[in-house]
Amino acid sequence: MSEDRQTLDFYDRAAGDYADRCTSGRPDADMLAFVGALPPGARVLDLGCGPGQSAAHFRDAGFQVDATDASDGMLRTARERHGIDARYATFDMLDAVAAYDGVWANFSLLHAPRSALPGHLARVHRALGPGGLFHIAMKTGSGARRDALGRHYTYYAIDELAALIADAGFTETARRTGSGPGMAGADEPFVIMRAHA
């Protein structure tokens, strides 16, 4: 998660409601593609795990899951609802080297300041083993601002994000765009990319 206190305070307060509104009973196509591209028993980092539903899907797929978040409320929800032993960590605390087969950053890195993203991407690349798989989902647009709920978001043009991913040493292998309503109610465009270290 972000170290933005206002964003974290929102997630601490609203973790249960967030889980109720955003938790799906089954994995979506993006998760199925990610899972299908990993070897049996893969070690996966859920970076910014939120209420733990993705981490639970990875566990149920037979993967070794390391789930992290910076919101105490989200960590508690992940433990209570899904039995995920999620641990506290900010993005810049990722110091693993070649420890994971896959890193799942699903609408989490968008809370980081623009100036911090290159460093976060470099840490993700270092944390993956050779050929490791990276999933990243971000809202698209320009600038940075708070939504109606007070959460801080940084928006990226698709080509800008692709260049940052390439600069971090990744090779992009899949991309899709779409739009949808978030918890604040606004319909916003997004991009989802998969890339290999």
What does this 3D model show about the protein?
This protein has helices spanning 5-22, 29-36, 53-60, 72-82, 117-127, 158-167, and strands spanning 43-47, 64-69, 87-88, 100-106, 128-139, 144-146, 152-154, 171-181, 187-196. Helix 1 runs parallel beside helix 4. The protein is α/β, with parallel strands linked by helices and 197 residues long. It has a single domain (5-196), classed as Rossmann fold (3-Layer(aba) Sandwich). It has six helices and nine strands. It is 34% helix and 30% strand. It starts with a helix and ends with a strand.
Chain-wise SSE layout:
Elements: H1 5-22, H2 29-36, E1 43-47, H3 53-60, E2 64-69, H4 72-82, E3 87-88, E4 100-106, H5 117-127, E5 128-139, E6 144-146, E7 152-154, H6 158-167, E8 171-181, E9 187-196
Parallel strand pairs: 1-2, 1-4, 2-3, 4-5
Antiparallel strand pairs: 5-9, 6-7, 8-9
Short description:
By secondary structure, the protein is α/β, with parallel strands linked by helices. It has helices spanning 5-22, 29-36, 53-60, 72-82, 117-127, 158-167, and strands at 43-47, 64-69, 87-88, 100-106, 128-139, 144-146, 152-154, 171-181, 187-196.
What is the count of distinct domains?
Answer: 1
Strand order of the largest sheet: 3-2-1-4-5-9-8
> Could you name the ranges where pLDDT drops below 50 across 5 or more consecutive residues?
none
- Cα(first) to Cα(last) distance is 22 Å
CATH class: Alpha Beta
Shape: globular
Report the mean per-residue pLDDT as an integer.
91
Can you identify the CATH superfamily?
Vaccinia Virus protein VP39
Structural class: alpha/beta
Helix content: 25-40%
E-strand count: 9
